[in-house]
């Protein structure tokens, strides 16, 4: 691992760093988690115009969303010839489909007769061909035009020229991405350090067991930025104060598209005012929804809450999925190892938390977005791959504590609700602002800064 760009930025004084916590666990240390990267950054304010302006949102659609690689779905969601899934962004709609020869294809979801959407937005399923629901023009899965009803009406139609217009599509680590820009660099190049960093973290043998989507009243960037820092955590999520290393989390900026945070769990926040025992700490961690069997454990003399938690997760992985976790460190087992891929996804690649968060604007509206949580589990060894979960839509007014799918994760329910309330308040505050800009901290919010630096590069092209 070659990334070691360190600048002298002060870190949370007096608190252990993620590196120190990881080393105190003993056992395996992975180079990928030792790497740190903090290139110099500007300290200028960032204008709220980028979050609230309709003109900016319109331009962002053209200059960013139409140019970047975007995560669509897992590859197992379009595994067999005829499987399709529709991905929407702004007014764009893309059908991703597995062709008869096994190739993955992506087409603009619009009929070449009179424009009707070929498949409904956000739909998925199976079909032998792609048939327009209006007059029945039909394409083969490879995009060639198969049939036009009343063909005698179209002597002027060149079948060869009426292939469905394609969009770039590619797969990395079991994840399907599209890019509407025909001249965009290849996905692998776009992914920067990700393929190298994820060498020990294949996602292919995992499946999607929960997919939630909630509508939020805020700009998509605002929603995303709540997950790029833990500066707000002690105040907004006091339930986490004894179990999450928030202000001392590690933040890395690797390249234009990839940033990362490493957040230690089962440790106190530097903001914790009270000292509790490691036994109390493991009780809070496990009974907060992280215990696979809903029970606590009694710590042995000198055992840390982290070690006990890692043991619990290793046992759950072995018992539930037949997984051998002996090559993974305790940090890989329990911590939040979260990579942000520009523009809009987080990949949580730790074993206990493997999931994707995705935010997207709703159409071209700068004031509304969707926030998705996609949780993964390993495919149990020797068993057929379970079907991927269908998406469950949650209205903005419905709190996460009422979402039955999340009942086994009470801490997530509480913290997501706390964030949801804040995001509306932040967006409304941006609209009400006299200052008209935000002032970022230099380390804990450095990934928000990095995101805006990249956004600015795309907007300037
Ligand atoms: S609009 Fe699609 S067949 Fe007419
Ligand atoms: Fe939060």
The number of helical elements comes to 13
Helix content: 25-40%
Overall number of domains: 2
- The helix-and-strand class reads alpha+beta
Low confidence ranges: none
- Rg: 23 Å
End-to-end separation = 32 Å
Largest sheet: 8 strands, mixed
CATH superfamily of the largest domain: Naphthalene 1,2-dioxygenase Alpha Subunit, Chain A, domain 1
How much of the sequence is in beta strands?
Answer: 15-25%
Task: Just name the CATH architecture of the largest domain.
Answer: Alpha-Beta Complex
In CATH terms, what is the fold-level topology of the largest domain?
Naphthalene 1,2-dioxygenase Alpha Subunit, Chain A, domain 1
What does this structure look like?
By secondary structure, this protein is of the alpha+beta class. It has two domains: 291 residues, Naphthalene 1,2-dioxygenase Alpha Subunit, Chain A, domain 1 (Alpha-Beta Complex), CATH 3.90.380; 118 residues, Rieske [2Fe-2S] iron-sulphur domain (Rieske Iron-sulfur Protein, 3-layer Sandwich), CATH 2.102.10.10. It has 13 helices and 22 strands. The protein has an eight-stranded mixed beta sheet with strand order 15-16-17-18-19-20-14-21. The two termini are 32 Å apart. Fe (ii) ion binds next to helix 12.
């Amino acid at each position: 691992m070659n990334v070691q760009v360190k600048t002298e930025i002060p870190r949370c004084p007096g608190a252990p760093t993620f590196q120190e916590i990881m080393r105190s666990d003993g056992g395996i240390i992975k180079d990928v988690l030792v790497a740190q990267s903090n290139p110099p950054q500007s300290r200028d304010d960032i204008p709220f115009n980028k979050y609230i302006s309709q003109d900016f949102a319109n331009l962002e659609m053209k200059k960013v969303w139409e140019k970047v690689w975007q995560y669509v779905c897992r590859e197992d969601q379009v595994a067999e010839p005829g499987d399709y899934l529709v991905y929407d962004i702004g007014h764009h709609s893309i059908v991703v489909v597995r062709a008869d020869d096994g190739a993955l294809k992506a087409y603009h979801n619009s009929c070449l007769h009179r424009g009707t959407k070929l498949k409904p937005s956000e739909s998925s399923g199976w079909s032998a061909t792609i048939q327009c629901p209006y007059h029945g023009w039909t394409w083969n899965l490879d995009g060639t035009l198969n049939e036009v009803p009343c063909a005698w009406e179209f002597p002027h139609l060149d079948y060869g020229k009426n292939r469905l217009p394609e969009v770039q599509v590619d797969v990395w680590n079991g994840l399907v991405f599209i890019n509407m820009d025909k001249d965009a660099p290849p996905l692998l190049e776009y992914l920067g350090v990700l393929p190298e960093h994820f060498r020990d973290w294949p996602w292919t043998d995992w499946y999607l067991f929960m997919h939630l989507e909630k509508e939020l009243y805020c700009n998509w960037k605002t929603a995303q930025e709540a997950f790029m820092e833990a500066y707000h955590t002690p105040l907004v999520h006091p339930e986490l104060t004894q179990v999450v290393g928030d202000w001392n989390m590690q933040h890395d900026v690797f390249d234009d598209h990839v940033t990362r945070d490493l957040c230690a769990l089962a440790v106190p926040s530097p903001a914790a005012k009270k000292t509790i025992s490691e036994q109390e700490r493991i009780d809070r961690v496990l009974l907060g929804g992280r215990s696979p069997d809903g029970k606590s454990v009694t710590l042995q003399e000198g055992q840390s809450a982290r070690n006990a938690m890692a043991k619990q997760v290793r046992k759950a992985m072995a018992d539930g999925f037949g997984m051998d976790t002996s090559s993974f460190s305790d940090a890989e087992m329990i911590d939040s190892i979260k990579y942000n891929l520009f523009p809009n996804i987080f990949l949580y690649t730790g074993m206990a938390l493997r999931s994707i968060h995705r935010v997207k604007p709703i159409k071209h509206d700068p004031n509304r977005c969707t926030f998705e949580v996609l949780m993964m589990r390993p495919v149990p060894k020797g068993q057929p791959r379970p079907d991927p979960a269908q998406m469950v839509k949650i209205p903005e007014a419905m709190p996460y504590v009422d979402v039955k799918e999340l009942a086994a994760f009470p801490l997530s329910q509480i913290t997501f609700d706390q964030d949801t309330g804040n995001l509306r308040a932040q967006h409304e505050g941006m609209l009400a602002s006299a200052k008209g800009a935000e002032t970022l901290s230099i380390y804990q919010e450095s990934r928000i800064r990095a995101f805006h630096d990249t956004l600015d590069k795309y907007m300037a092209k």
